[in-house]
């Protein structure tokens, strides 16, 4: 892990451990890798992550895309801001259930002067199955 990546991983871990806000839903996430423009986390699906059908909630997946890609962006040596979201989209492909181990990998695809583009893969590690893909566009010219 680069120095900035290690600092961002530590910031992420502390922030989700102490927040009283919406991000407390991320408390089970563990940072696996955090390096220049990338972040990978994993967690085990718990009851608090489910929708009424008993599968991983789509809103929670969208939250993962937003949060993890934002932290991935901040590990980039050229970026000094979290920016603000311009667009966020998620394509859902498969379901996960309680006890499944999920990996979330966010990659900074491009950083321009004012706009950054990120992609996220959400996978069921146990089945080696893609659950969702996400795209996140952020304004960073602030």
UniProtKB/TrEMBL annotation:
Q: Give the protein name, as stated in the record.
A: Thioesterase domain-containing protein
Name the domain of life: Eukaryota
> Record's InterPro entries?
ACOT13, HotDog_dom_sf, PAAI_dom, Thioestr_dom
GO terms (molecular function) for this protein are: fatty acyl-CoA hydrolase activity
Family affiliation? Belongs to the thioesterase PaaI family.
Keywords of this entry: Hydrolase
Pfam family membership, one: 4HBT
Q: Which residues form the Thioesterase domain?
A: 54-128
Query: What PANTHER family does UniProt report for this protein, alphabetically?
Result: ACYL-COENZYME A THIOESTERASE 13, THIOESTERASE SUPERFAMILY MEMBER-RELATED
């Amino acid at each position: 892990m680069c120095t900035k990546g290690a600092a961002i991983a530590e910031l992420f871990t502390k922030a989700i451990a102490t927040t009283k806000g919406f991000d407390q839903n991320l408390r089970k996430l563990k940072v696996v890798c955090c390096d220049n423009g990338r972040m990978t986390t994993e967690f085990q699906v718990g009851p608090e992550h489910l929708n009424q059908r008993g599968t991983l909630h789509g809103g929670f997946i969208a939250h993962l895309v937003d949060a993890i890609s934002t932290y991935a962006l901040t590990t980039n040596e050229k970026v000094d801001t979290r920016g603000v979201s311009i667009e966020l989209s998620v394509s859902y492909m498969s379901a996960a259930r309680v006890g499944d181990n999920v990996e979330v990998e966010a990659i900074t695809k491009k950083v321009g002067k004012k706009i950054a583009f990120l992609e996220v893969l959400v996978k069921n590690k146990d089945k080696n199955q893609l659950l969702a893909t996400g795209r996140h566009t952020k304004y960073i010219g602030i």
